[in-house]
Design brief:
Helix content: over 70%
Strand content: under 5%
Shape: globular
Structural class: mainly alpha
Number of strands: 5
Radius of gyration: 26 Å
C-alpha cells in the first residue's frame, strides 16, 4: 500500500523481469475511493475541466496552449525584471536590510496561499480562480508602484504574492489537466522556456527603467500588461466550462450519489423557502459559507500560516543578541505551539483537511515536498543577498550584475526542457531527479571558493550555471513524480502542497539568510571599518547605494567588501550542509511509470473517462465515477 494507492502488476523491465516500482496499471483502493467520493463537492472544478476537455475542438485547444505560452512569457518577464527593483525600492527609504524580512513575508504568502487557491480552483473552476488571483496581482503592483513608505511596499508585496503564486500555480494545474504523464514534464518545462529569452531581455529592461524612469514604473507597467495577456486564457477556460455546463457534461461526470443529494437539497431548500422565507434563506447562506470554509479548511490554513510566520519572521528580523529577548522567544514558542495545534486540527477535526491522511501516507508526495523544502532552503540561503553581494564586491555594471542574477533562471529553464525530453523517452523520472540534485550540490559547494572579491568571474558564473542546470532537472522530475501518484481529483491540491512546503523552505532559507545577515554583518563592519562612526556604519548597512557610490580601492568600500565576504561564507556553508538532504531523500522516491494516462494510479483519461478490462478481454471506456461506458474494440492477439 502506498498512500492509499494499491500496486498492481508492474511494467516489465528490459531483462524480462518486473521492476519493483509502481506502474501505470496501479489502481486506487476502496478506502481512497470512498474518501474522494465524500469530498466530491470539493472537486466540482475538476469535473468542470474534464467536461470542458470534451467540448474543446482542435482550434480551441490550440488557443488554450497559445494562451498559456503568452501568459508564461509575461510571468517570466515579471520575474526577470522586478527582482532587481526591490533592492532600489528599499534603499530609497534607507531600509535595504529589510529585504530579508520582506522576502520572508512574500515567501510565506506564496506558500500558504497555494492550498487556498488550489481549493478555490477545485471548488469553483479554473477560470474563476484565474480571475480572482489576477485581481490580487493588479492591486498588489498598484500599491507598490504608488508606495509612500517601505511599509506600503511590504503591504503591496503581500497582495502581489497572492496573485503571483496563484497565476503560477494555476498554470501548473491547467497543464496537469490537459497533458498525460508522458508529455507533462516537457510541457511544464516549455512553459518556463521564455526565461531563456527574458533572462537576457529582462536585465536590459530593468536597468533602463531604473536609470531613466525609476523602480515604480518597473512595477506599474505590469498592472496594464498582465490583464491584457491573461484575457485570452481566461476567456477560453470560461467558455469551455460554460459550454460543457449547457450540454450537461459536468453533471454526467458527477457520481449518482452526489447528483441525487444535490437534487434532494434543492427540493428541500425550495419548499422550506416557500414556508419560512427570508430567515431560512439567510440560514442557507450561512450553511453554504460554512461548507465553503470547511472545503477550504480556512482554520487549518490560518493556523499553518500563523505557525510558520511566528517561527520564521523573528529569525530574519532579529539583530545581534535579540534572539534571547523575551518577545522573540515568545513568538517562537507560540509558533511551535500553533504548529502542534494545526497538526491536531487537520488530523482530528477538519472535515476536508489541508493535508489529508492519504497524502501523509503517500511516499511520493511527502518525499517530493521535503526535497523541494531543503532544495529551496539551500538555494535562498545564498541567493537572498547575492545581488547585493555582486554589486558591492564585483566591479560590474548594473546590467551585468542583473545578467548574472538571471543565470540560474536561464539554466533551470534549459535543463528543465532536457528533463522533460528525458522523461518523455525514459518513461521514468527518478534518474533525472537524482542527477539533478547531485549537479546542484556541486554548484553550491564551489561557491565556498568563488565568493571572494578576488575570485574568478568565470568561476562565480559557473557555480550559478551548475545550480541552475541541476535545479531544472530536479524541479520538473519531482513535480511529475508527485502528480503521478494521485488521482486527477487530488492533482491540484497535492501540487499546491508540494509547492507549499517548497515555498516554506524558501521562506526558511530567506529567514536564515536574514538572521545571518543581521547578526553578523554589523559586527563585520565594526571589525573592518573601526575608524568610522556608528552612524556611518549604520548608513552602509542600511543602503547599498551608499556603498556602490564609492570607487573600488576606496578604504571604506574595501572594508565593506571584506565584511560581505565573511558574511557570505557563513551562508554558503549552511547551504552546503542543507543541500545534502535532498539527495538522500531522492533515493526513497518510487519510480513511477509515466504512461499515456492522466496519472499512474488509475486508468483515467484526461476527459475523466476510465478504461477497464471486460470479461471477454476487451476494454470499455466510461466515467471514472461509475457512469455509462462505451465499448471499444477487443485488442488484437
Amino acid at each position: 500500500m502506498l498512500g492509499g494507492y494499491r500496486r498492481l502488476p508492474t511494467e516489465p523491465n528490459s531483462h524480462g523481469g518486473d521492476e519493483e516500482v509502481p506502474s501505470h496499471s496501479s489502481e486506487v483502493d476502496d478506502d481512497t475511493v470512498s474518501v474522494v467520493v465524500l469530498e466530491e463537492e470539493a472537486h466540482v472544478g475538476v469535473k468542470k475541466v474534464e467536461a470542458a476537455l470534451q467540448v474543446y475542438g482542435r482550434y480551441s485547444r490550440w488557443v488554450l496552449f497559445a494562451s498559456l505560452a503568452l501568459a508564461s512569457f509575461v510571468y517570466s518577464l515579471d520575474a526577470s525584471t522586478t527582482s532587481a527593483y526591490l533592492t532600489f525600492a528599499t534603499s530609497s527609504f534607507g531600509e535595504h536590510s529589510l529585504i530579508g524580512a520582506i522576502t520572508v513575508v512574500q515567501s510565506l504568502i506564496v506558500a500558504v496561499g497555494k492550498p487556498v487557491i488550489a481549493k478555490i480552483a477545485d471548488v469553483s473552476s479554473r477560470g474563476t480562480a484565474y480571475v480572482t488571483v489576477l485581481c490580487f496581482y493588479v492591486l498588489g503592483y498598484s500599491v507598490i508602484a504608488s508606495a509612500p513608505s517601505v511599509g506600503a511596499i511590504a503591504g503591496g508585496i503581500i497582495l502581489y504574492a497572492i496573485g503571483n503564486t496563484g497565476l503560477q500555480l494555476l498554470t501548473q494545474i491547467v497543464i496537469a489537466d490537459i497533458t498525460t504523464l508522458t508529455w507533462r514534464g516537457l510541457v511544464v518545462s516549455l512553459a518556463a522556456a521564455p526565461f531563456i529569452i527574458n533572462g537576457f531581455i529582462g536585465p536590459n529592461i530593468s536597468s533602463a527603467i531604473i536609470e531613466n524612469l525609476g523602480w515604480r514604473w518597473g512595477y506599474g507597467m505590469f498592472v496594464i500588461v498582465m490583464p491584457l495577456v491573461l484575457a485570452p486564457l481566461i476567456t477560453t477556460l470560461l467558455w469551455g466550462e460554460r459550454k460543457a455546463k449547457k450540454l450537461a457534461l459536468v453533471d454526467s461526470l458527477l457520481s449518482s450519489t452526489r447528483s441525487r443529494a444535490r437534487s434532494l437539497s434543492h427540493y428541500s431548500q425550495a419548499s422550506q423557502r416557500s414556508e419560512i422565507g427570508f430567515r431560512l434563506s439567510y440560514t442557507i447562506l450561512k450553511q453554504r459559507l460554512r461548507r465553503i470554509a470547511e472545503q477550504l479548511d480556512l482554520v487549518g490554513l490560518v493556523l499553518l500560516g500563523a505557525a510558520v510566520s511566528l517561527i520564521l519572521l523573528p529569525l530574519t528580523m532579529s539583530v545581534r543578541g535579540s534572539l534571547k529577548s523575551g518577545p522573540i522567544i515568545a513568538m517562537l514558542v507560540v509558533g511551535v505551539a500553533s504548529l502542534g495545534v494545526f497538526a491536531y486540527w487537520d488530523i482530528r477535526v477538519a472535515k476536508v483537511p489541508v493535508i489529508a491522511p492519504r497524502f501523509v501516507r503517500n511516499r511520493s508526495v511527502i518525499l517530493a515536498a521535503f526535497i523541494g523544502f531543503f532544495d529551496f532552503m539551500s538555494f535562498y540561503l545564498t541567493f537572498t543577498y547575492l545581488y547585493s553581494f555582486v554589486l558591492v564586491v564585483k566591479p560590474w555594471s548594473l546590467i551585468n550584475a542583473t545578467y548574472f542574477i538571471q543565470i540560474q533562471s536561464v539554466g533551470l529553464t534549459f535543463s528543465g526542457i532536457i528533463a522533460g525530453i528525458s522523461m518523455r523517452y525514459l518513461h521514468r523520472y527518478k534518474y533525472v531527479l537524482i542527477i539533478g540534485l547531485i549537479v546542484r550540490f556541486v554548484g553550491v559547494t564551489l561557491m565556498i571558493h568563488s565568493r571572494g572579491a578576488d575570485s574568478s568571474d568565470v568561476e562565480l558564473v559557473a557555480t550559478q550555471i551548475l545550480q541552475g542546470l541541476g535545479g531544472g532537472l530536479a524541479a520538473i522530475s519531482s513535480q511529475v513524480g508527485a502528480q503521478a501518484s494521485v488521482t486527477h481529483a487530488d492533482v491540484a491540491i497535492i501540487t499546491a502542497l508540494v509547492l507549499l512546503l517548497t515555498e516554506i523552505g524558501a521562506a526558511t532559507g530567506n529567514a536564515c539568510a536574514g538572521a545571518i545577515w543581521s547578526n553578523t554583518m554589523p559586527g563585520n563592519l565594526d571589525k573592518y571599518l573601526p575608524w568610522l562612526t556608528e552612524e556611518q556604519r549604520a548608513e552602509l548597512y542600511g543602503s547599498i547605494t551608499s556603498v556602490t557610490s564609492l570607487p573600488r580601492g576606496d578604504p571604506v568600500r574595501e572594508g565593506v567588501i571584506q565584511a560581505y565576504d565573511d558574511t557570505m561564507k557563513v551562508m554558503v556553508i549552511a547551504a552546503i550542509v542543507v543541500s545534502v538532504l535532498p539527495m538522500l531523500l531522492a533515493l526513497g522516491m518510487p519510480n513511477w511509470y509515466l504512461g499515456d494516462k492522466q496519472n499512474a494510479v488509475d486508468d483515467t483519461d484526461l476527459d475523466g473517462r476510465k478504461s477497464v478490462e471486460t470479461e471477454s478481454g476487451g476494454s470499455e471506456v466510461g466515467n471514472a465515477n461509475g457512469g455509462d461506458m462505451l465499448r471499444t474494440a477487443d485488442p488484437v492477439a
